[in-house]
Amino acid sequence: MKLFKKQYSIALVFLFVLCVGCEGFLDENSVSYQTTDNYYVTEQGFEDLVRSNYTKLREIHKERDLVLMGTDIFTSASWDEAGSGNQGNALNVYDIRFTPNIEPATALWDLLYKQIARTNTAISRQEGVQGMDPDRLAIRVAEAKFLRAYAYFYAVQQWGDIPMPLEEITTSSREVIKVPAAQVYDQIIKDLEEVESILPTKGNTEYGRATKGAAQFLLARVHLTRGWNFNNSLGGTAEDFNKALDYADKIIANYPLEPEYHKLFPLHAENPLEETFPTQNDKSDEIVFAVQYSDNILTNGSDEGETEYGIGNDYHSIFGGGAEDIPGSLGRTSHYNRNGALGNYIVSPAAYRLFDPDIDTRYHHNFVEAMYALTDVTGFVPDLDNPSSTIDIAKGDTVLYFPPWNKPANDQDKGMDVGGSKPYAVLNLDEIGINPISPYHSQDKTPLMWKFWEPGIPYDDAQGTFNLALFRSAEAYLIAAEAIIKGATGGDLGGAEVYYNAIVDRALGANAGADPMRAQDLTNLASMSTISYRANGNLDIDMILDERARELMGEYSRWFDLKRTGKLIERTTLMNPWTASVGELQDRHYLRPIPQKEIDRSIPSISQNPEY
């Protein structure tokens, strides 16, 4: 079992311990001919050990299939082929291929337990450290406990009852003992309550390290989740919701919202030819905790042996769309980088209809509605049925346009490729994600999800340097609203709707106070009926989940949200085209299968989750 292997060699640790860093976070130094036993007892050695605990955050958050895929807002391309022999992605379909051998579950399990093993080493070795200031040592151990609690929180939500080692393992053993999920939650809360009183406040430690605020934020999430008490198995009570609200209020008081949503993410131009390559700032006061990336390639990667996770932040390149085959494309170019070429995560059609494209600023930041020719094209044939009719396309011309869902183009205002008047392709929402015969688009096309797009990154590298926010105070507002809906009282700002509407109004910008309108029927793409998503005496869990989808799209939380609230089957079956058409999503999928190789290598074999 990987979590029971003897701790990593010192050479491995020192090659990558500094991969967490932004400026001023971690300074490299070269160490050779050391062992863990004679290095971790030194102040520098222990500092490096704790630094190495942060590195795993990069790899863990690149294993996002189980968090983003198979939900209501992300799916796979080619959903129009559902039922035509195309099986689709198993993570969306939830069919017989979703077994204990499914690779994303195995990969995430291994990473989380590697992180747990590493943090346990730091916690277990604290007594042997020599010459280190006791207060500083206590803070470093608190950081390790915070990161261990975070890893266990991910694991217990995915798998339920799990092994819970709490000390460094120094001898080989195949014995594995699962503990009840409620016991795991007790340990998580115990660790976090302990470190909350030890960790420094923001601004009083190196940027990127765990802080008191990070512990408080995670406590808010943990109590909110335990309060829902999945299958009566978490030990949750009504008091958990009061605690979630209390901790959320602490975050809101100390981490003010960024006035403009788009400034939380990389700044960019929607037209690559107009890109100004602005200086990026990923240290907003709203962000409580983030995965750190660096502009130094030597300290921007993963651990040795984890090369499949690459170097740098790749969130700018994993969401669908694709621009490599449009007229005037330069093919694989940094203008559009790899957005859509990887195409791992495609926004479901219904998810676009959650936004008011007219006044919700998140819609225009998150989605690119037009693609542009990057070079001149002469004699282009837009209509294959009329080869004698040609047009010239100039560099910078629109070649593909996606009208907002609430303003679909009529036949006349569509492209010449389908008999319309426009010299570019126009795809309404009910036409995206399909593969029509057209020279404008030879593969699946959807509006690019550019929320995390970083300009100027070479196509083949995906070496993003923008930090990936994990905790930000906007979510604390929504945690508070949800906790109050579930019975919590005494919110500092008032009732649930005050917290909820604060996030809606930030998104509306100059239109704060207006009624933003989403589609009333999310899945009937032809329906233009709308309903306001401002809370006005009608706030419920579905409205909060809608707002979490708009605000936190792609931010490593969606499956957890649906699982926590018991809405996974209802909302995913409604909004994910693959799940709706050929899916077999069932109650058993609220827990993931224990990886088969974990069962095989344990003696006696640990039990599998029900119905796998």
3D architecture notes:
The two termini are 20 Å apart. The protein is mainly alpha-helical. Helix 9 runs antiparallel to helix 10 (238-254). The protein has helices at residues 10-16, 36-39, 43-60, 65-68, 90-93, 103-124, 134-159, 181-196, 212-228, 238-254, 349-352, 361-366, 473-485, 496-508, 541-552, 558-565, 568-575, 577-582, 596-600, and strands spanning 74-75, 162-163, 178-179, 287-291, 346-347, 367-368, 370-372, 377-380, 391-393, 398-401, 425-426, 448-449, 468-472, 517-519, 530-532. The model is unreliable at 1-28 (pLDDT under 50). The strands form 7 sheets. It has a 3-stranded mixed sheet, with no helix packed on it. The protein has a two-stranded antiparallel ribbon with strand order 1-5. It is built from 19 helices and 15 strands. The longest helix is centred in the N-terminal third of the chain and has 26 residues, at 134-159.
Quick tags:
612 residues; mainly alpha; 3-stranded mixed sheet; two-stranded antiparallel ribbon; 19 helices; 15 strands; disordered N terminus
Secondary-structure map:
Layout lengths: L9 H7 L19 H4 L3 H18 L4 H4 L5 E2 L14 H4 L9 H22 L9 H26 L2 E2 L14 E2 L1 H16 L15 H17 L9 H17 L32 E5 L54 E2 L1 H4 L8 H6 E2 L1 E3 L4 E4 L10 E3 L4 E4 L23 E2 L21 E2 L18 E5 H13 L10 H13 L8 E3 L10 E3 L8 H12 L5 H8 L2 H8 L1 H6 L13 H5 L12
Parallel strand pairs: 10-11
Antiparallel strand pairs: 1-5, 2-3, 4-13, 6-12, 7-10, 8-9, 14-15
Helix pairs in contact: 3-6, 3-7, 6-7, 7-8, 8-9, 9-10, 9-13, 10-13, 13-14, 13-15, 15-16
Q: Report the mean per-residue pLDDT as an integer.
A: 89
First-to-last CA distance? 20 Å
The share of residues in extended strands comes to 5-15%
Low-confidence stretches: 1-28
Q: Please list the strands of the largest sheet in the order they lie side by side.
A: 7-10-11
Main sheet record: 3 strands, mixed
User: How many individual β-strands?
Assistant: 15
Structural class: mainly alpha
In oligomeric terms, what are we looking at?
A: single chain
Helical stretch count?
19
Shape: globular
Helix content: 25-40%
